[in-house]
Write a structure and sequence with these properties.
The radius of gyration is 18 Å and the shape is globular. It has 270 residues and is α/β, with parallel strands linked by helices. The longest helix has 20 residues. The protein starts with a strand and ends in a 15-residue tail after the last helix. It is built from 13 helices and eleven strands. α1 packs across α10 and α11 crosses α12. Bound molecules: the ligand C=C(O[C@@H]1C=C(C(=O)O)C=C[C@H]1O)C(=O)O. The ligand C=C(O[C@@H]1C=C(C(=O)O)C=C[C@H]1O)C(=O)O binds next to α4 and β10.
Length: 270
């Protein structure tokens, strides 16, 4: 099973990290783009992945109910740090983190809609000062977005959760938990157990939110209030409104030619 290595998924894994993990379940922790690749190659069977990547491979995957990494407005950890307003990035260098698919697709969609054509680069965005020396803007997600003082180095920091909310008044689903269809067909009861474990693990995470915040604070070396605010802004469920918002996002990606076919959102049912 996969695990996102950022603090954003830590509420979901709290229980598994504190005794719930059974001996037969191996955990692979990595950044979203690596988990995206590993679920397609079959190196992992169940994992959180980028929602946009699910859309690209929906025929091979099924969603697990009630799990996501989402926001409803600001998210803090998905940002475009830029020295120009979005509409003024024509011909400018924009570096995309290599760890994202959802935020990267969303950003491309925004540039397409606004008829702005930057010069894209893909790279490592772990040091904001170094990044600012080589490009005009950077798309950053996860711990690196929270940890580095992007707002001190770039003129603007645009929160993509907020940007989507201003456009749609809807939540944005960045990550979803999926199972490979072939595995779910073969082992439906095992998948049901893993799904139940994830839900129980998440429940324990929300019951021990103070500890989750403390662990995030220690990992990122930031003030407690910032981490607390971060987890207040993040949602790990997948209710009807989020599903509808996700479908709308996929439809917009299709309209912009970023997706090749309509996504038929399908859930695992035991
Ligand atoms: C909110 C976040 O959501 C994430 C963004 C992802 C993406 O852009 O592909 C994938 C998984 C999530 O980790 C974040 O990374 O901070």
């Amino acid at each position: 099973m996969g695990k996102i290595s950022y603090i954003n998924a830590s509420p979901v894994y709290y229980g598994l990290d504190h005794g719930l993990l059974p001996h037969w379940l191996a955990m692979i922790s990595d950044v979203p783009s690596v988990l995206n690749r590993k679920i397609i190659t079959g190196q992992i069977e169940v994992s959180p992945i980028s929602a946009a990547f699910y859309a690209m491979h929906h025929r091979e995957l099924l969603l697990l109910p009630d799990l996501s990494i989402s926001c409803h407005g600001r998210v803090l950890s998905v940002i475009l740090a830029s020295n120009y307003a979005i509409d003024d990035l024509e011909g400018k260098k924009v570096m995309f983190t290599r760890e994202s698919a959802s935020a990267a697709s969303f950003m491309k969609m925004i540039f397409n809609q606004r008829k702005v054509s930057p010069v894209y680069e893909i790279g490592s965005v772990n040091n904001c000062r170094m990044v600012s020396e080589s490009v005009d803007a950077a798309l950053v997600i996860g711990d690196a977005a929270l940890r580095q003082p992007w707002d001190q180095v770039f003129e603007y920091t645009i929160d993509l959760g907020q940007l989507w909310f201003e456009m749609t008044q809807l939540p944005f689903v960045f990550a979803v938990w999926v199972v490979r269809r072939s595995f779910a067909q073969k082992y439906p009861f095992l998948v049901k157990d893993i799904h139940q474990l994830l839900l129980e693990s998440k429940k324990q995470g929300y019951q021990h939110m103070d500890e989750v915040v403390e662990a995030g604070k220690t990992k990122l070396n930031l003030e407690r209030s910032i981490i607390k605010e971060y987890f207040d802004l993040l949602y790990c469920d997948l209710d009807d409104k989020k599903i509808k918002a996700m479908q709308m996002f996929f439809n917009s990606l299709l309209d912009q030619g970023i997706l090749k076919e309509k996504t038929d959102i399908r859930f695992f049912k035991a």
